[in-house]
Write a structure and sequence with these properties.
binds pyridoxal-5'-phosphate, 4-stranded antiparallel β-sheet, 7-stranded mixed β-sheet
């Protein structure tokens, strides 16, 4: 089979490192985002598989000329879209080394397995999730982490009801209900669909003006469902909602779950990493959850894909996924003195070496570096919110708790909800296309569309946030003018 020899590997490796360095370190001098032309899309979409294979240097040329030229934008310090951060430099380098080793992390007795256990423990300690008796594993992202956690919750609920869901499926099982707030992430809904709970059996608990789950309502709905003979599967709370980065009242929800004997899952994809910040005491309630999902590929900047699923009861997670009979597992582990295989705790058999990029990022940052990054981003968000509140053309729509600020431009003629939506959507699209800054929008409430700034890039400074504000105001004024003159 055609492969590189060692000298060629090194020569091309240097070129690849140069390309990566150029890409990462000259980002500020380029537009945040450049829309692709039809020709540029087609050059990739319609390229044919070469019959005799390209020269390796031509492969890198193609990447340089057609791929690196059109990034998503999240490597840029003025990218404020969705929940996508810049990649950590140590993460980028270790992705390369992980690929060079290319182990399967299903299990076994090799360094990658121990590194994954180490880094999962670090994150448990960081979030105060119990280490003893629990189990965590790396997955592709927050959605997969939630699915793994909720599968374990379903396993507990149904085995308590005397049902063997793995053997017999969902037929004949008692009806299950799950609880999340109207600000909960769509991945929880997807998990409910996949696990046979059904979207119709997801109780959407309203949030107050502060976007936090109404805990009294939660308690009342669970009680009502119980009386109706339904089985309460789990409550999914947010340690940082996608829309506004709001923390649900986690401690109060934990108390409800304990009293009502319901599995308590926390979606910490967005804000779980902020546990180090002592000014966010609500996050200490992650210690009380039955399961926790995290997303180091968000705020921590670990190269995508990297999510973490943690389940307090290791045995429950194993019984959800393992196909190895209990006695055989014990014998195998004792005979070889190996840790149990990760593939017994999740969906994937052949698993990538995600641990190295996560380990390298955390080891390099240290807790101090992470604490500082979170504090800086939160401070930038607070100061942006203050500038928005002071600007009459803008309406501030949330008080940022983490590093997400929602607002809208309101100085338009006859500003109905519909007209505000149309104008602000056009504003976001215009800003994205012009490439000075990148932000996205969100439906905060039915009918209420907001522009959303998420600060996650390690190099974003107050000058970037100020530049974003001034570009936005100028672009909005221009759009307004164009709309007027068209009337
Ligand atoms: C709060 C929250 N939970 C879960 C997810 C899903 O995570 P992922 O996109 O990594 O699957 C997201 C993604 O943005 C999120 O913001």
């Amino acid at each position: 089979m055609k492969e590189l020899d060692a000298d060629e590997f090194k020569r091309l490796g240097h070129i690849a490192v140069e390309l990566a360095a150029e890409h990462i370190y000259s980002m500020r001098d380029r537009p945040v985002f450049t829309p692709m032309t039809a020709g540029e899309r087609s050059a990739i979409l319609n390229s044919a598989l070469p019959e005799s294979g390209l020269l390796p240097s031509r492969v890198l040329d193609f990447v340089r000329d057609h791929v690196l030229t059109h990034p998503m934008g999240n490597g840029h310090p003025r990218f404020f879209g969705w929940a996508n951060s810049s990649p950590s430099s140590m993460g980028v380098l270790s992705e390369f080394l992980a690929a060079a080793m290319n182990p399967s992390c299903a299990g076994g007795d090799h360094a990658a397995i121990y590194l994954e256990r180490c880094v999962v423990r670090w994150l448990m300690e960081l979030t105060r999730f119990p280490v003893q008796g629990s189990q965590g594993l790396l997955v592709s992202g927050g959605s997969m982490a939630a699915l793994i956690c909720l599968a374990a919750a379903r396993q507990r609920a149904l085995s308590r009801a005397g049902c063997d869901v793995r053997e017999l499926g969902m037929s004949g099982t008692p009806p299950l209900v799950m609880y999340m707030s109207d600000q909960g992430h769509s991945s929880l809904l997807k998990a409910a669909g996949l696990l046979g709970i059904g979207h119709a059996n997801v109780r959407v608990i309203p949030t107050g003006k502060d976007f936090r789950m109404d805990v009294d309502r939660l308690d009342a709905v669970i009680t009502q469902d119980r009386k109706a003979g339904l089985t309460a599967l789990c409550v999914c709370a947010s340690a940082g909602t996608m829309n506004t980065g709001t923390l649900d009242p986690l401690r109060a929800i934990a108390e409800v779950c304990m009293r009502q004997q319901v599995w308590f899952h926390i979606d910490g994809a967005l804000g779980g990493m902020a546990a180090l910040d002592s000014s966010l005491p609500e996050l200490s309630a992650m210690a009380l959850s039955d399961s926790l999902s995290l997303d180091p590929h968000k705020w921590l900047g670990v190269p995508i894909e990297c999510g973490v699923a943690m389940v307090r009861d290791q045995k429950r997670l194993r019984e959800t996924f393992s196909l190895v009979p209990f006695d055989a597992r014990l014998e195998a582990a004792e005979a070889q003195n190996w840790p149990a295989w990760f593939s017994e705790y999740g969906l994937e058999q052949t698993r990538g070496f995600r641990a190295l990029k996560l380990w390298a990022t955390l080891a390099h940052l240290g807790t101090e570096g992470l604490r500082l990054r979170i504090a800086q981003h939160r401070a930038l968000a607070r100061s942006l919110a203050a500038s928005i509140a002071a600007e009459p053309a803008l309406e501030l729509l949330n008080q940022p708790e983490l590093a997400i600020v929602c607002f809208r431009y309101v100085r338009i003629p006859e500003p109905s909800e519909l007209r505000l939506r149309v104008f602000n959507q056009a504003l976001a699209a215009q800003l994205q296309a012009e490439g000075e800054v990148f932000l996205t929008g969100v439906d905060l409430r039915p009918g209420c569309y907001a522009l959303r700034v998420s600060i996650m890039h390690h190099a974003t400074r107050s000058t970037d946030v100020t530049a974003m504000m001034s570009t936005l105001l100028k672009t909005a004024a221009r759009l307004n003018e164009a709309a007027f003159s068209a009337m």
